[in-house]
Amino acid sequence: MTFGEKLKKLRTDKNLTQEELADAIFVTRTAISKWETDKGYPSIDSLKVLSNYFDVSIDELISDADVENKKQLENKKSKKFYATAICFLIATVVFTLLAYILEIKYLTVGSCLCMIGYVIFAILTKPKDKRLQMRKVIVPYIITRAVLFVIVVSITIYTLVTL
């Protein structure tokens, strides 16, 4: 039984609506809905409140399957961030090349904005659990992103100066 199924059963056993439960534990109804459909998971603080409210242990609320589901959700989100980062990188290269080839200065603004988007989404591509493990190699990771950023900014500056 998943966390969402357990939560829904506990809620319905007490004859509560999602809105009533949300008010009781100080979250939104949509949060309860996400939790019950296993599209999201509560924070540890919310788990503590739920545990106290329903008078069950946190261990009873969550199980190994729930932890695995959360990892799968994180991995799915990370893949979307990765695809978005790659799109931003491609757009950066396209804007930079077009600015250089067509000699249109204003296209360099697009390349700079896309590069900023790339850096942001590239940092978010690692799932949360891997970001924590990655602290040992964070410096090389940041350096590679910074080098790419410097290259694009250099090409942009070069393009602006030569036009």
Model description:
With 163 residues, the protein is mostly helical. It has two domains: 3-62, lambda repressor-like DNA-binding domains (434 Repressor (Amino-terminal Domain)), CATH 1.10.260; 75-162. The protein has helices at 3-13, 18-25, 29-36, 44-54, 58-61, 64-102, 107-124, 128-133, 138-162. Helix 6 packs antiparallel against helix 7 and helix 6 (64-102) runs parallel beside helix 9. The radius of gyration is 23 Å and the shape is elongated. It starts with a helix and ends with a helix.
Explain briefly what this protein structure is.
It is built from 9 helices and no strands.
Count of helix runs:
9
Mean pLDDT over the residues: 82
Taking Cα atoms only, what radius of gyration do you get, to the nearest Å? Answer: 23 Å
| Quaternary | single chain
Biggest sheet overview:
none
Which short descriptors sum up this protein?
single chain, 163 residues, mainly alpha, 434 Repressor (Amino-terminal Domain), 9 helices, 80% helix, elongated
List the helices and strands and how they pair.
Elements: H1 3-13, H2 18-25, H3 29-36, H4 44-54, H5 58-61, H6 64-102, H7 107-124, H8 128-133, H9 138-162
Helix pairs in contact: 2-3, 6-7, 6-9, 7-9
